[in-house]
Amino acid sequence: MSLRLSTVILPHVRWHEGGRSAWQRADELGFHTAFTYDHLSWRTFRDGPWFGALPTLTAAAAVTERLRLGTLVTSPNFRHPVTLAKELISLDDISGGRLTLGIGAGGTGFDATALGQEPWTPRERADRFAEFVPLLDRLLTEESVSYEGDFYSAHEARNIPGCVQRPRLPFAVAATGPRGLALAARYGQAWVTTGDPRLYETGTPEQSVRALRGQAERLADACAGIGRDAAGMDKVLLTGFTPDRDRPLHSLDAFVDFAGRHAELGFTDLVVHWPVPDSVFAADEKVFEQIITEAPAQLA
After folding, report:
1. In the chain, what is the straight-line distance between the N-terminal and C-terminal CA atoms, in Å?
2. What was the pLDDT predicted at 135?
């Protein structure tokens, strides 16, 4: 299978001032999927415009035809499985079955305290995620769900008619630790990683490749533990967070070299950030479009 190219379009531009055109252009360029971040605010963009992920994806569904759409990633930080399931089923319907749910345990950013709560510890995030994912799976596949857990409850939650995609829309589970990888193995149609964050500042590209290989091997072990072959699972690398940073987008040759090294690790999908001027995601738009239109033929 050829390496697929996808993008993340940040929800930081008003829809009628460039938001719509970015999603339409992503569709025209032939990206496999266009994701957006599901945050209430994010990093250096916190004090500027930032719009909701699911309304943005709904609008994108209405102005695109082929492009798959998704979150990268949704987390329990401010989501509840019952209300999230209803919105996902609606969006899957509106998009004609083009929705992928990127889902992760969440972190310690602004979302972690926006509802007034104390930040959860890593253990509590993992505990909540371990309950969140199986419940969401049930809500998206069963007509009526009742559940009482340590963190989440559902009482006769109805989700009729269910997803357009059967048995439900695909999950792309972001994980690097053992508990998250176990969830990815059991519930994920895809696995997502950004690499090893400890290498971002001082690591080398070679160290990053070794770390990613180790993560993929641990995913394979988690899959084998439940009798699943990891070879049949999509593996997604969200770029921009490895020691390479933005260098793969400097030229077509640089990108093909980067993509080839990661395809050899078994990655099926690379996700690049849509250019954002005056930010860490700044990129030459002409070079960016050249990469997207010409790189796939060299990577086939």
Report:
1. 8
2. 98
Question: How does strand 99-103 pair with strand 4-8?
Answer: unpaired
With beta carbons less than 8 A apart as the criterion, state whether 139 and 81 touch. Answer: yes
Weakly modelled stretches of the chain, pLDDT under 50: none
Q: What is the pLDDT of residue 300?
A: 84
Taking CA atoms, 286 is separated from 219, 250, 251, 294, in Å, by 37, 11, 10, 12
Helix, strand, or coil (residue 187): helix
Q: What is the pLDDT of residue 1?
A: 58
Instruction: Let me know: does 112 contact 119? Beta carbons within 8 Å.
Output: yes
Helix H, strand E, coil C: the string for the chain is CCCEEEEECCCCCCHHHCHHHHHHHHHHHCCCEEEECCCCCCHHHCCCCCCCHHHHHHHHHHHCCCCEEEEEEECCCCCCHHHHHHHHHHHHHHCCCCEEEEECCCCCCHHHCCCCCCCCCHHHHHHHHHHHHHHHHHHHHCCEEEEECCCCEEEEEECCCCCCCCCCCCEEEECCCHHHHHHHHHHCCEEEECCCHHHCCCCCHHHHHHHHHHHHHHHHHHHHHCCCCHHHCEEEEECCCCCCCCHHHCCHHHHHHHHHHHHCCCCCEEEEECCCCCCCCCCCHHHHHHHHHHHHHHHC
d(CA 175, CA 193) in angstroms, rounded, equals 6
Q: What is the pLDDT of residue 109?
A: 87
Task: Report which secondary-structure segment, H or E, holds 191.
Answer: strand 190-193
Q: Are 267 and 3 in contact (CB under 8 A)?
A: yes
**Residue written as token pair 């390496």:** 3
